[in-house]
Amino acid sequence: MGFTNNIFRRVAEHRTAPTATYTARYNINRLVHYEHFTYVLNAIAREKKLKDWTREKKLELIQATNQTWEDLAHNW
Predict the structure, then answer these.
(1) DSSP letter (8 states) at residue 7
(2) Residue 34: helix, strand or coil by DSSP?
(3) Per-domain residue ranges for the chain?
């Protein structure tokens, strides 16, 4: 979870993460949900809201938009 101004770069960073990082340790390499915001303050507010959610509620959000957990950045 987090926000970026360059989603393509961020996905690439996750896919090539060094072995000692959280991303590599937990094999976080698929983009299964994202939201677009025009204003950074709106993105920050949304991120803060999502961080307060339970894991179950976050999983429900993903299920509602990407039932098969397809990698949305697969063809990038």
Answers:
(1) H
(2) coil
(3) 7-65
